[in-house]
Amino acid sequence: MKALNVNGAQVAVDQDGFLVNLDDWNESVAEALAKAEGINLEAEHWEILHLLREFYREFQLSPATRPLIKYTALKLGPEKGKSMHLNRLFKGTPAKLAAKLAGLPKPSNCI
Fold first, then answer.
1. What residues pair up with 4 in beta bridges, in sequence order?
2. 8 A C-beta contact, residue 100 and residue 111
3. What distances in angstroms separate CA 102 from CA 22, 35, 62, 65, one per listed residue?
4. Which of 85, 86, 101, 109 has the fewest Cβ atoms surrounding its Cβ within 10 A?
């Protein structure tokens, strides 16, 4: 079991860097996870991360790319609900990487 150091506290992550305990997530944890991925979280990232957490509360699962795009378009509008926008924010792997940064489980269809 690996751990992420967040403000002096150890947060358990699995071998892929996903949180072991979803309740450990907060914005500091998201920042640390993003830093490990070489991402500086900006307002556009936070918008998607909070949206993903809303999706998870509603459906109890992390969305694959297509449902993520549709949900984003539904909630944030068609300009933000495009794969190009999400790929730019999350380095070409929006469903997997955004779920990780949002503190959610890896989407079931992601390798």
1. 11
2. no
3. 9, 13, 10, 15
4. 109
Residue 92 DSSP SS3: coil
Find out whether 42 and 63 touch, Cβ atoms under 8 Å. no
- Select from 80, 78, 103 the least CA-distant residue to 18: 103
pTM (whole model) above 0.70: yes
10-49 pLDDT, tens digit each: 999 999 999 999 999 999 999 999 999 999 999 999 999 9
Residue 19 structure tokens: 């949180």
**Residue 109: what pLDDT?**
65
Please report whether residue 50 resides in a domain.
yes
- Bridge partners of residue 60, in order along the sequence: none
Identity of the amino acid at 84: M
CATH classification at residue 80: 1.10.10
